[in-house]
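Here is an idea for our session: we take a single protein and study its fold together. Which protein we use is up to you, so please pick one and set it down. Once you have written the record down, we can walk along the chain together:
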Amino acid sequence: MMDNNPEECSVCFNNYDDNQLRPRTLPCGHTFCSQCIDNAIKNGQLTCPSCRAEHAATAATQFPINYGMEALIRKLKGIEVVPEKTLPAKPIKAPARGISKKLHSIMEEQKSNISSLITSCEEVLSQLGEYRGQLGDWKTHHLQLQDRLYALVEQNKSAMKLLELEDTSVVDMTTQGEEGKIQLQAILGNLDTVNTAQEVFMTINEVDQCNMEVENWLQKCQELFPNVKTVHTSVKVQETIREALEMTTTETGATAEPVHLGDSASSIMNKVQEITGEIPRKQLTVEDLRRMREPVKRLVEAGRVLAVQEDKDGCRSARITLEDGQLYLHSLPRQPTPAHAHTLQESEVVGMLEPSCTLAFFDLGWAGSTRGRVTIRLTPDTPLARQFVLLCTGQRGHTYRNTKLLEVWDKGELGESVVGGDYESNDGEGGTPLLPDLQGEYRKSGRAGTVLAWGELGGPRSTQFIIITRDLQDGYQWTDVFGEVVSGLDVVMAAVNHIDITEVTVVDCGVVLPL
């Protein structure tokens, strides 16, 4: 549907502005105001109001400003629409008389020069608008950082207050202990000087009373010190602030040497990219991913790097994410590529897996949420492993994504296993192989975590897989093993114990890229 009002948010119908209603573009390509995006985020997830695509999100600020939209709005604001009835009649150009061809040529040249200058003005004005939007974004980031710094300072003050209270308590208890010690020393001296039975009884009574007070003091010290909350808070706050300070170096701080652009004729935003170290969208390479330097790392963490694949039906794009130091290539759904994204060809990214992929993953979910990630180490250079990679990445259009687990065998007993992987009918009856020949040299295993093929190799269910969740009985082994769960077996076991295994879905899948 054609959007006749590009200057307004399609959710709240308010015009975009430079504050809370700044236009921001989601990874699916749709644009909404910051306020509506914040309101739509629930439990770390954002559902696009237009296409219902799911995006991981905690705040609108993690999505980029649509500077092109802002520039368009500023341009629209500068145009006065004149009612049709009041438009003056278009003057009819009379043929020029008394002007020589040479003068006419000069006039045409001047008109061409002026038109060229107007075009240049428009380009620079657009660049200035985009730059101003970037400046506004940076100011917002600085305010957010300032708030976080203030929060660290307040945490430090709270920790110091707890330490002061603990110190006061220690001083009071120390005073009591010293007084008790002096009293015991005095009594010890008295015991050497008593001469009568009455003095002995009086001294012994005094000893009993003093002993009881000192023993109570000793027990109280053991109970009161150290105060767990005080010590834990102090250590954690120190660690947090120390790590934050250690990350700040003179190279990245305010005293860093400026970049000298010289007489560069490049555009304003290209100069900004040169200063900040950001990589222009058309210049990102697979080698940049391998090196994972800070500018590239920031792009990946912001969800701005995608692998794309063109086919006869259009474009598909896959997310590339960085989690816990590992780089993940997700499956290829058919979705629009955001204008702000840095893209790489899927074939180039998959080329990073050569000579063979050894790690694949899928995320299991049920009851409306993702429950965990399962990572599988594949047996290199086997047809079943290569087919598994194809279905995890979706390179050939078919994928394990959105398929469900089908059934559980021997639940609660030795050899307990779960079946999944019917990308065709999703009911256990499909799973046509993607490779012409799946025969190969496969190992045997009966251990929990083993991943193997279900059904005859090359048969109509050849893409279905089995994951063993409990060891088989001693001496028993499955054949056609092509992988092993290296993390997330507990997630599979939790799925097996779910009330209905067919409610468990492969929410997402993909492969781990080597760095």
Summary: The radius of gyration is 36 Å. DSSP finds eleven helices and 18 strands in the chain. The longest strand covers residues 314-323.
